[in-house]
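Cross-check.
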Amino acid sequence: MTFNYISGKSTDSSEKGKIMWARVKGKTENALMKLNFKGQYNFRPGFMKHFKEQKNVKTIFKIFGAFYPTLFPKSSLTLQEVGRAMINISEKGYSKQILEVADIKKIAQ
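Predicted model, tokenized:
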């Protein structure tokens, strides 16, 4: 069985950083990697742009989503890219367990 965990950009695998949420996510990633799964992958997406048909998207995210991916393409993904990457990695595996934005984009293709 393959286990995919959505973590987040700037997660702290050392578990010693100043930001609590980053330490907690890092601790969770580390614990999951010790479990006996066929494959275990930690996805660290940055900004994820909503899709047109998505409901309940706050106005601020609609505004932000209109320009952020254009200004910062290396730190943003679409929800479809994350979903495709999760499916592809479950079927084919990958050489790394911690997947940053560039890895997720590569796997999604």
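The chain has one domain: 2-108. The CA atoms of residues 49 and 65 lie 6 Å apart. Passed to J.P. for a second look.
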